[in-house]
Backbone:
């Protein structure tokens, strides 16, 4: 499995690539081409061109959840489709939790969720909206709705979502992630891990039946995390004896420092390619 960070909050020094407060990754596994999240703007498209990644030839698009910094790039991808009349565009399958495509709002921002309706998305992609795990390839799986089992990763709300015609506090049930089964163990790939990165790892172990975890990467949603959250998180991840911990996007500096005291934290930025 090979994974490239198409966009992250940071860009690697000397990469000449764009960064933004969003996340997008391109994954190749078992001959399948998967786009995981699309960032906030067209930055992931620009970086994909620089990296030689053809986003007109995708098998899957997987969404980690429905927030704008992970989904608004979908509109830019459709624009690329429409501006490429001389190219055959493969009709990808798009997998996401059903609530990932609902209207969301946050602190006066009228649309905090995706800009494209399910009907519009269905015009371009084969939709698989489900809260159940979905195997994208023989080794790569979308984890479905993540079970919340860690007592130190308490459920929290962020904004509101439109449900049944009215807005309700959004506890982000649509948060999910990917996991890849390799010969040396699992690679867990998070978007934002709103449900908690340890809950996410536990879900990956349950879904795949593989206990050994070799790497964890992505956004961990550790911002201004207190010691009651950060310390048990670091202990849990340290106990996995990881090859690497590539935390990025919504993981703040204090969290990275706290995790690095016990875990092999690695640098992440737009353009980074990892092979497992």
Residues:
């Amino acid at each position: 499995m090979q994974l490239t960070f198409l966009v992250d909050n940071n860009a690697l020094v000397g990469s000449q690539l764009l960064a933004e407060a969003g996340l997008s990754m391109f994954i190749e596994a078992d001959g399948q081409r998967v786009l995981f999240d699309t960032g906030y703007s067209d930055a992931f498209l620009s970086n994909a061109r620089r990296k030689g990644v053809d986003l007109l030839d995708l098998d899957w698009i997987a969404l980690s959840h429905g927030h704008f910094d992970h989904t608004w790039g979908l509109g830019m991808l459709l624009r690329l489709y429409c501006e490429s009349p001389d190219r055959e565009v493969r009709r990808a399958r798009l997998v996401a939790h059903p609530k990932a495509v609902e209207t969301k709002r946050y602190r006066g921002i009228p649309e905090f969720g995706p800009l494209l309706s399910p009907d519009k998305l269905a015009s371009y992609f084969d939709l698989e909206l489900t809260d159940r795990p979905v195997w994208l390839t023989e080794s790569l799986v979308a984890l479905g709705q993540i079970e919340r089992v860690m007592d130190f990763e308490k459920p929290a709300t962020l904004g509101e979502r439109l449900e049944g015609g009215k807005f309700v506090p959004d506890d982000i049930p649509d948060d999910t992630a990917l996991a890849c089964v390799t010969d040396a163990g699992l690679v867990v790939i998070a978007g934002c891990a709103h449900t908690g990165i340890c809950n996410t790892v536990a879900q990956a172990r349950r879904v795949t039946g593989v206990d050994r975890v070799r790497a964890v990467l992505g956004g961990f949603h550790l911002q201004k995390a207190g010691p009651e959250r950060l310390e048990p998180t670091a202990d849990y991840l340290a106990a996995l004896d990881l090859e690497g911990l590539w935390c990025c996007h919504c993981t703040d500096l204090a969290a990275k420092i706290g995790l690095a005291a016990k875990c092999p934290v690695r640098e992440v930025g737009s353009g980074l390619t990892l092979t497992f």
